[in-house]
Amino acid sequence: MPNAADQRSKSLWMDVDVVPEAPPLGSDRRCDTIIIGSGIAGISTAYELAIEGQQVMIIDRGQIAGGITARTTAHLAPLCDDLTAEMIKLRGEDISRLFYESQVTALDRIEEIQKRENIDCDFRRLDGYLFQAPGTDSKIIDDELDAVRKVGAPVHRLVGVPLAHCDKQHALRYPRQATFHPLKYLKGLAEAITAKGGTFYPHITVQGIQEFDGGPVVVATDHGSVTAKAAVVATNSPIIDRFALHTKMSPYRTYAMAFSIARGALPDALYWDTLDPYHYVRLQPGEGRTDYLIVGGADHKSGEADDAEARFEGLEAWARNLIPAAKDVTHRWSGQVLDTIDYAAFIGRNPGNTNVYVHTGDSGQGMTHGVVGSLINSALILGSDTKWQEVYEPTRKTAAAIGNYLRENLTAVQNFAEYLAPGELGSLDELKPGHGAIVRAGLTKIAAYRDSEGALHARSAACTHVGCHLHWNSFEVCWDCPCHGSQFAVDGTALNAPAISPLAEVKTPK
Ligand SMILES: Cc1cc2nc3c(=O)[nH]c(=O)nc-3n(C[C@H](O)[C@H](O)[C@H](O)COP(=O)(O)OP(=O)(O)OC[C@H]3O[C@@H](n4cnc5c(N)ncnc54)[C@H](O)[C@@H]3O)c2cc1C
Ligand code: FES
User: Residue 498 C-alpha to ligand 2 middle, in angstroms?
Assistant: First the structure.
């Protein structure tokens, strides 16, 4: 059977190896700041600290930048992707304005860094179009226009966008959005960090973090421990939290696909519609006269659907209708975003710690959120302040978001009831090659997969984070946890945080 990681989908970016050669963890196990997780959030934070003279170590349990960042579509769009009008309802105008300003600063910072470090990453500024989805009311465009003006964003109201059948659609045009190749950018950033003495350690799993009376932080890994003055947990979904942050956000699976398209067939811009979930579109330079058209959307709560083929069919039909120049499908992939109940990420001191910092809750704009996080957490570590802390404070409680809180946490309550339900199959003998299913064995639920050669892979169906019941994901060939976003390979290996440990072994009935 191919290894667990090989069975998952591949994005358009994944042929770039961000840190091809990394040393093993040696005997020098001290640094100023240890960064756990090497996505956009972790690497950007390491960069901000390294240029200030800090000795940084970056540890990842997979390959460097092989997590959700390798699955992004990298629209760099600073307005709240759940709509600014919605954000103002929950958090008011002042916080929404600060949110917008922080996201703009993050985008400017990416532009500045790629220039300063000479990173060839296809970065470009372009327009973004939010357009009225066919069959919907244009009021949403008017409401959003009012809202984005309140937060001070430049915006133009228009009718018609350069997509087929959209000449009468109401739309907003936002100037100075941007996009890039995410892994080429992170490769350049990693080289700059290495040149400043920072070190990357892939394939090392962090198992726990201990802080001694506001003093040093000791990070336990499966290759021994590391001591640092500070630690940043940038594992996408935080590995150090069981409830405090996880109950304020939910994992959603989102799908993306790339088509080939003749260069110039579509104006180079970002496009997204007003549906919930929304469709999103961008271009990426290809070879010769051919570019890539990237289309995404069709989100659902993680683990609540296993119908990727139907979702890709829907996305493809949507894309071909609006962009008839789309040619062959070249890539199809999926990944997760963590939607917080009030739309902003959680960034800052980890609740209850002094020298442990956290970054999580990307809410579909994790690329700019990752960079905002790098600016806030590096400032806190270096002893200064930013005016955005209140927006992203991890301990915040947003009273107006109580409805979202209750709705999102219903998943966990309903999930535990699944332990009482019968299995999806009567017995393991019914499991066909290439399929996964939950099978009951007495009081135990088994997450079972039969590979193409007929061998059975059976593990406990209880997530090792806080025990939620797993669901099969046939597209990514893995087990998804609907509660907080963990994923496990069919051999039980934890692929996505917050889970650290593999699924427990089980005895299969004879
Ligand atoms: C299909 C798709 C489209 C998207 N489109 C956009 C977009 O257009 N614009 C936008 O802004 N955002 C977008 N996002 C969101 C954005 O890509 C993510 O929010 C962002 O990349 C997350 O970065 P991160 O650094 O937080 O996490 P990651 O990139 O996942 O990095 C976390 C790292 O932590 C490591 N880790 C986990 N546990 C441990 C452990 N115990 N020990 C050591 N290491 C560990 C993981 O291996 C991983 O490499 C999209 C996401 C998807 C899936
Ligand atoms: S991710 Fe929290 S219980 Fe599974």
Answer: 7
CB-CB neighbours of 357 under 10 Å: 26
What value, to the nearest 5°, has the Cα angle with vertex 376 and ends 374 and 379? Answer: 100
457: β partners: 449
Probe target for ligand 1 pocket from 236, 282, 357, 464, with the most ligand atoms within 8 Å of CB: 236
> How, if at all, do strands 290-301 and 280-284 pair?
antiparallel
3-state secondary structure 361-396: CCCCCHHHHHHHHHHHHHHHHCCCCCCCHHHHCCCC
Full-model pTM? 0.96
Q: What is the pLDDT of residues 407-456, one digit of tens each?
A: 766 777 677 677 677 778 788 889 999 999 999 888 789 999 999 999 99
- Say which residues have a Cβ less than 8 Å from residue 116's Cβ, sequence separation at least 6: none
Atom of ligand 1 nearest to the CA of 235: 34
User: What per-residue confidence (pLDDT) applies to 3?
Assistant: 59
Parse the chain into domains and list their residue ranges: 122-178+250-340, 421-496
Question: Relative to the CA of 470, which ligand 2 atom is closest?
Answer: 4
Tell me the average pLDDT across 281-306. 96
CATH of 421-496 given 3.90.1720.10, 3.40.50.300, 2.102.10.10, 3.10.180.10: 2.102.10.10
Which CATH code, of 2.40.260.10, 3.30.9.10, 3.40.1190.10, 3.40.50.720, is assigned to 122-178+250-340? 3.30.9.10
Contact status, residue 350 vs residue 374, Cβ threshold 8 Å: no
Which residue lies with its CA nearest to atom 18 of ligand 1? 366
Q: Which of 243, 415, 486, 487 to mutate to test the pocket of ligand 2 (most atoms within 8 A of CB)?
A: 486
Spell out the residues 6+ positions from residue 442 whose beta carbon is closer than 8 angstroms to its own.
509
Q: Average pLDDT for residues 182-186, to the nearest whole number?
A: 98
- The alpha carbon of 233 and the centre of ligand 1 are apart by a number of angstroms equal to 12
Write the pLDDT tens digit of every residue in 366-405: 999 999 999 999 999 999 988 999 999 999 987 777 777 6
The answer on pLDDT for 318 being more than 80 is yes
Under a CB-based contact definition with an 8 Å cutoff, are residues 246 and 412 in contact?
no
Q: Which atom of ligand 2 is nearest to the CA of 498?
A: 1
